[in-house]
Amino acid sequence: MKLSKLVWKELFERKNQVVTGLLAILLGITVIVAMRNITFYSEKAVAQELDALGANILVLPKSVTLQNYYSADIQGQEFPEEYVNRLANSNIQGVDNLSPKLAVPVQIANHKFTLTGILPKSEFQAKALWKGAGIFSRPTGCGTVVNIPGLAPKDPKETLVRKRVIDTLNENEVLAGADVANSLGLKTNDNISLLGKSFSVAAVLPQTGTVDDSRIFAHLHTVQQLSGKGKVLSVIEIVGCCDQISKGLVSKINHLLPETKVVTIGQIVDTQIKTNQMMSSLSLVFIAIIVLVGGAGIANYMYANVRERRREIGTLIALGAGSGFVLRMFLYKAILLGLVGGISGYLLGTLLALLLGPRIAGIAVLPMPTLIIWALMISVIIAVSASYFPARSAARLDPCTTLQEI
Amino acid sequence: MLKLENISKTYNHRHEPLTVFDRISYEMLDGDFISIVGPSGSGKSTLLLMLGGMMSPSSGKVVIDGESIYDLPPNRRAEFRRQKIGFVFQTFNLVPYLSALENVQMPLFLAGLSEVEQRERATSVLERLGLGARLAHKPSELSVGQQQRVALARMLANDPTVVLADEPTGSLDPETSAQVMDFFEEINHEGRTVVIVTHDPTVAQRAGKMLRLGDCKVPYYEQTPVWASVV
Q1: Taking CB atoms and an 8 Å cut-off, how many pairs form between chains A and B?
Q2: Is A194 within 8 Å of A212 (Cβ atoms)?
Q3: Is the ipTM of this complex over 0.95?
Q4: Hey, are the CB atoms on B87 and A325 less than 8 Å from each other?
């Protein structure tokens, strides 16, 4: 005989009651896991959708306004490209993407466009890595873009529209905005001459309805060289992690680059922060309700179990069991219920999330193995806390009364 | 040696104090076989529970082998019960979801014996009681007499020096009852002190000594300290 065997045997003896007691905790954990799973993927989906709206932080020359930026009228006011290195090599956390740009006006066949020099991510990322630290050593999870089925990135070159940055761009390649391509009849792999240099069209970007549609994107260093402006930039677009923005990312960048103006695109940031906060608050409210309901269910079951086993407890005490043993017997049972409830709740919750995610939130949901740890922790804590007082009352039972021998 | 020293026991019954024992003293020698008799409510079971370290007296001492058991902390008293005392109940009080073997293993498990030792000793005691073929049976699968024998085996498992039995034959037919009493005599001859509470005069007379308790409704606190009599 062992304590575990004794508890298991008792559980199997009263299967129906155990199922009732377990149901409260099982359903609670199921709802928590399903909700957390769906919430996680819908937050990511929202974040990706908001990414499509563009950068949420801009580093501009002191005298440039946000209006100038949107009208592409930022020529003639620049700051040194070295600022990118400062940013890339800083230990500021929460910068998901970084896109330095230099805007230069060009005219092709009576049409005026903006030739925008961009620096591929691979170049400044390499610099940051070379230094062994920097913004790309941020903790995972903060703004990390995950691939969600149905929302996977399209062609790599077209990700410029969504992420404001591309991984690589050769010095003789350009990306054409939708309006530019339309006006000039450009297609992928066509050749185009700009500022006396011939370029190949690497991709035509999809329509965005923004100023990007009338831009032609080329490698930053090529544009700097062709325009004769040297190592300067018009703007650094930053896609910042909204959590970090609320923790003062903008002021940190301002402090790092005091000669510039750092602005947030309020609506995007606000939407991201509000969405995340709403989801977190909703989750907390649900968890609180579930903890209370699950705990009450378990406590009720345990009190009933103690009442039913009064005579057995009295007998055990007569045989020499101390109050500590009786307490352990009930708490061990609570831990078992918590573990069973946690594991089955995780499985059921994950299944529910996989089935309901696409129907309710319109997103595909994948299982999250890390949630099993949370499910087990919450489940065991609820079961043990709710069982503590019934267990203590069992341990304090008067054996004489329970044996009804008086 | 088992001694009651100036024991009093008072209950609160509907906010009125009800005294069951008033300063009684009594001494049981090692190897005694004593039956406690008396009308319902006279305090027979109360006395048995007090002897077993399960119910503290309002005043006075219960001394077993020189140790005042109610002066011990609760966990030490539980250990004392495990080591020295064996209980038998009228309703057997077997754990319904455990087999006969597991029921007998319980006191051995509580005493900290390994599973192998528990199984060996429990099997041996059950075989002694003629239940070797019923080890895996649950109480509900056994006859009333067999259930009481499992309870006796459980009582004997820890090799107690004092055996306390509350109406052990109360639920049994005369034949089984006689067998159970034979068993009590047998373990008494092994040197154990046996104390039996009973209503049955036949059972009571098989004990070497008889302790007769009066009617509990009598206000004993007005009576002389030695109101219990040994016949």
Answers
A1: 80
A2: no
A3: no
A4: no
